[in-house]
Structure formats: C-alpha cells, structure tokens
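Notebook B, p. 112. Complex prediction, attempt 2.
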Amino acid sequence: MAKTTLKDISKALNISISTVSKALADSYEISEKTKKIVQEYASKMNFSPNKVAQSLKIGKTNTIGVIVCAINNTFMSEILDGIQKASIETGYDIVIMQSREDIMIEKACIEVLNARGIDGLLISPVSETSNINLLQELQENETPVVIFDRIVNQLKTDKVGINNFEGAYKATKHLIEQGRTNILHITGHQLGVSKDRLNGYKDALREFDIPLKPYYFIECNIQDTEILDQQIKTAILKALSSDNKPNAIFGATDVITTRTLGILANLGIKVPEEIAVIGFSNISIPFALNPALSRIKQPAGEIGNIAMKKLIYLIKHPTYNDFETVELETILEIRKSSSLN
Amino acid sequence: MAKTTLKDISKALNISISTVSKALADSYEISEKTKKIVQEYASKMNFSPNKVAQSLKIGKTNTIGVIVCAINNTFMSEILDGIQKASIETGYDIVIMQSREDIMIEKACIEVLNARGIDGLLISPVSETSNINLLQELQENETPVVIFDRIVNQLKTDKVGINNFEGAYKATKHLIEQGRTNILHITGHQLGVSKDRLNGYKDALREFDIPLKPYYFIECNIQDTEILDQQIKTAILKALSSDNKPNAIFGATDVITTRTLGILANLGIKVPEEIAVIGFSNISIPFALNPALSRIKQPAGEIGNIAMKKLIYLIKHPTYNDFETVELETILEIRKSSSLN
DNA sequence: TTGTACGCGTTATCAA
DNA sequence: TTGATAACGCGTACAA
C-alpha cells in the first residue's frame, strides 16, 4: 500500500485534482459540502501531502541545516536539544553535520547542505573567518545564516552565544573572594572564545589590584588530549616552582578543567585545600567529579533554541537586516572544588 | 543569483534539456564533444542538480530518519556520531528526532518522518512493544527499519546493540575476583536492557556459588533524579543494616552509577575501601570522577555506524529479509573505584 | 547522436 | 463553485 495522493482521492471521488487540493486547503472557493466529502475521505485514507512535491512547487524545503564542530559532548548535545525543541515548535526539520574543527570539512558541509536545499543555516564556525565567503554567498541566495556559540565570525547576521567576558570575570572574582589570588588560567590554543575569557580574567584581577603574572596564562593544544595533559602538567609544575605558588586554577573549557582535576589528583595535590579549581563546564554530573566541580555553566539549550528562532524569523522576513548579537548570561555554580566551606 | 538549472544550461548553450541531462550523467548516447561542452559549462556555473526534483522523480528522498529517546548524553551523542560518519560515507542525509521516552511522542515522530518522506528509519524504541504496528506499516510501505541500542523490540528486522548479558557478567565477575561477594545491583524501572543485565549479574554469582539476596537487586525510577537519589540512598542504607553488608555496587546505567558515587560520598562511605563501584557507563571523563570510575563501556559509535550501514543495505536490497541481531562486545575498564591496587 | 514529450505530486492561474 | 492547464526541475522512453 503506497501513499495516497491527490490523484487517488480525485479518482475515488470523481472530483478534479485541483478541487481536491483546494478543498483540503480549506479554500473559500469550494463549497462546504465538497470540502466535507473530500476532507473526510482524505482523513480516512490517512492522506498527507507529499512534502517533496510541495517543496519543488514552493521552492522551500522546510529544512534547516546545522553545522557544529563536534556532536559528542554534553555542551553541544544540549545546544542541539534546544535547536530540536524549537524545530518541533516551528515545524521545521533539521539536518545536522559535523565540521570536526576542520575548515575544509566545514566547506564541504556547507556545499552539501546547499546542494540538498535548505531554507536556512545554523552554524558554529570552526574559526573566526572560516568559509566566510561561502556563507555570504548563501545569504545572497536568500538562505539566511545564524551563527551560534562561537560568535566571533565577521559575517553580518544574527549571532547567539554567551557573555564569555562576564563568565570569566565571575569565575575569577569568585576565586579571589575565596582568598585565592594566585590564579592560573589555562585555555585553548586557537579557541575563538579564549580572548574574551582571558579579558574577563584580567579584568577581575585588575579590579582587586592583583598583578598579572605572565606564565599564569597558558594556551594548550585541545585537539590532542595526550599533549594537553602534558602541557597542563608542565604548566602547573612550573607555576608551583615559582616564587608565587598558585592556589587556584581557572579552566577555560570542559576538557581542560576535567583533565586538570585528574592531573592534580595524580600529583597528589589536594583540591581545594592547596589549589581551588573552577572552569567553564556543561557536563551533566559536576557533583560526581573529584571533588564536586565549581563551574561557569552556559545556558546551552537556550543558545540553540534562540538561535533557531532567530533563524526562522529571518526566513520569514527576508528583507529584515537589523541584525543583533545576543550574549546570554552564564551561571556560577559553587561546589567543593573552589570552596572550603 | 539563484541556483543554476538544466534549463539555464540548455538555454545558454542552445542544447535541449534532455541532452544536457544525459551529458551530465555521462550517457553513452551523447557525443564526447557535447559532453565536454556541457560538463565544462556546468562546472563553471557550479551546477548541482536540484535534489528535491530528483527526489520527486526517483521517489527516494536520500534521507534517513533517526529516532532516539534523548540526545543530551554522551552515550547517545556517540551513537549519533557513528550514524553521522556512516551517513557521510554513504551520502545520505539524516534527520534526528527525540521521543523523550514517551510513546505518544515517539508515535508523532514516526508520523512526521513518514509524512516528510524517508528512505529508511533508525530507531531506539521507547519500550519493547511501543508503536510496533506503526513500524510494521512503514516496512510494508517499503521503508526499512533498523533497531539499535534497545534491541528488545519484536519487530522483524535487523537489530544492533550490545551484549548486555555478557557485559553485566564481566562486571560482576570482576567484582567477585576483587574479593567482593556482597554485590548490590541497582537498575532502572522499565529499562529494556535491565533483564539481560540482571541475568548476567545472576549468572556470575551462580558461577561462584554466591547466593542471590533478594533485596540486593533494586529497580529505580530513572526519569526523576530526585526520586532516584532517594531510592538509591534507601537501598544502600537498607542493605548496610542487613546481616550481609554490601561491599560492592554494580550500576546498570550511567546516571545510576554516577549518582551512586555522589550519594556514597555524601554518606561518607569510602570507595573502593568500603564499597567498590562499577557500572555501565559511557561518559567521556571516567578518570575525573570521585574516584576514577571502573566501567563497562559500550562501543557506542560502532553501534550507530553498523546500524546505519545495515539500514542502507536493506534500502538497496528491498527483498532481503534474512534479518540479523548484532550484539557488540563491551569493554571492561578497571579504575580505582573497584580496585584497591 | 540529439530532441520531444511526459510524468513525479503539488499549487496556482485562469477559464468555464 | 468547479475544472482544465501550466509550472516547479529532473529523468527517461521514444521519436527523429
């Protein structure tokens, strides 16, 4: 039993295809009587219009493309969750692709989605300027683009992310208020958000008149966890052997922070007694870490949800160009890793 | 600048549409000369065929539907990662939906995907018998279905999951070999995989002639973490106050196991000195838990990858019905939570 | 070797 | 109020 089409209904009821189509669309042109007959028969046959044919006719695919760097972490899957929720509310389908932090793969993703046909694109770009011309082409082809999470891209459009400066400031200030003034900041190499987070860190230090020690800011390789572990360990040991021993670490990402906890445990350094730890993190089980992790949590689901809704708005209002950058507030969660109480 | 079509090329080169179409398909009917002209112009114009029109013509959407219960956890996002990889290799698009552990939502997902048009469906069902008739209808409509992760559904088709019995057996045996004989098994209510895991647990006990104590097997509510926490705590306290105090806990899921660690820490019970812990788990940072968590790890990416490839095979071989259930092997990872060495 | 004509399932315009 | 017809872009059987 194949799917029912307008033609099938037309034949069965001896009514023309176009009348059937209009009747199902509840058109004012059609008599109530005919409408009733058609609609009843259609629902009896479980008719639903062929979306592919509709797409071809209308020129819209009702599909949104989503490009993220990696899907296999809690932060991104929460964002996707938010996107998905919004897609259900709005009736759009979403097709997700992964760029795996590679500009060439990102390029391929954009091209595949474009060839496939999408009404709009949500993208968390690999880097600040990656594939910016391709994205511009999309926009010129009347396919709106919204950037999320990594809101550094120079593209003229809506962007949705978090206030990284403010989040880093809050984390650092919290550590200082706990009496920790020698704060090591470990961040990622080539990480789009690192600049803002570094500035937030610096700003908090400045506010409390704490001088910034140069080797207290380390950029690590976050692609390869072996190298990362080595770099974190070296950084900690170097700082420990200095005049001003560190008594706190502020990690810029989930991976950095959790691995730091592991390394500190291996080194036999007590957290938070000797070194307090806080980090940007969205793992679902901060309480189960060793020790329970204080963190700056990002409203991941909301990022996705808002980004999706902004995109839908752009799709429905093609001429709108009063673009906006939304920076959501982060949440400071204090647990044992940064607090002796 | 809209997208180039066959018609555009036809006009520009003064060649009929069908000749252009055939030339681009490298048809034997067309002269090399014409082919060259057409192909060069097409690639210059960056032509790619309109997928929607192709779909309408061919009756295939080149899209696979994926229905999972929840996307926001490491286990599932690793599976999706595997599905995605396979989809790139095979050139299919994937549309992901979430059933949120709700049979009615699951039903809606299936209907939406069916209305949209998919060439095949990958589903991790909410429960053993959920929407089985709908899925059968899909199959009758020549849309193959492959079941993954939760391979308990009675549908006649390919299924890909893990060997839960074996995994539970390995975990339990490991605990016994560590000298732990009073092993509490905490599992989830209405969890499809729980029966097999329970049997693996029982089998290992039997092999070592350890009697099964009835209140050493607890089914908890895994929907609501508040209730779950309470149930785990009560179970532990009850067992502790019995004649045979537990010296190990085997958790059936990620959430159960990590929350158990948290509860044990709150109760001031030392892991692994007093109680060893092991669980089914796929979190990315077992080493950062308190203490580093021993676990049965599931080859999540592979589950997705294999399921996708089996589905593609079914799509390409509509008459094939020699269905198979693949049970992948789990990996035992021993860390501090279950080992004193 | 090339071109014409038709159909996939819709929607929309215009005529009846 | 209804129906015939064209069109979206592509692929293909058949005619030239």
